[in-house]
């Protein structure tokens, strides 16, 4: 199961990489009325990966109590504001790919036999 999850995370890198061939205008339009654009979806995934690499994975050790996840709505809104500071969609794709690879690598070093809890 763990290996499948890591492979799924890795597979996202190739799917996002392909988006470089699509005009920015198509990636910055909402996918449906009231929904995010592909640019924002990539930024959302990046920001959660960044959080997990920086805050959660370093705490993953046997019998640890991990920090509570941030409020999802607030964190997602913060993610969108954060990616608005990037100068291009290309840069967002670059940092997503870099951070997703870092997440996959970090997760591969976490012992699959450990147990931990999340704070509430």
Individual helix count: 5
Could you name the CATH homologous superfamily?
Answer: dinb family like domain
Q: List unreliable stretches of 5+ residues.
A: none
- Tell me, briefly, the overall form: globular
What is the domain tally?
1
CATH topology: Four Helix Bundle (Hemerythrin (Met), subunit A)
- Proportion of residues in extended strands: 5-15%
How many beta-strand elements?
Answer: 2
Could you report the average pLDDT, rounded to the nearest whole number?
Answer: 94
C-alpha termini separation: 25 Å
| Structural class computed from helices and strand pairing | mainly alpha
Instruction: Provide the CATH architecture.
Output: Up-down Bundle
Describe the strand arrangement of the main beta sheet, using strand numbers. Answer: 1-2
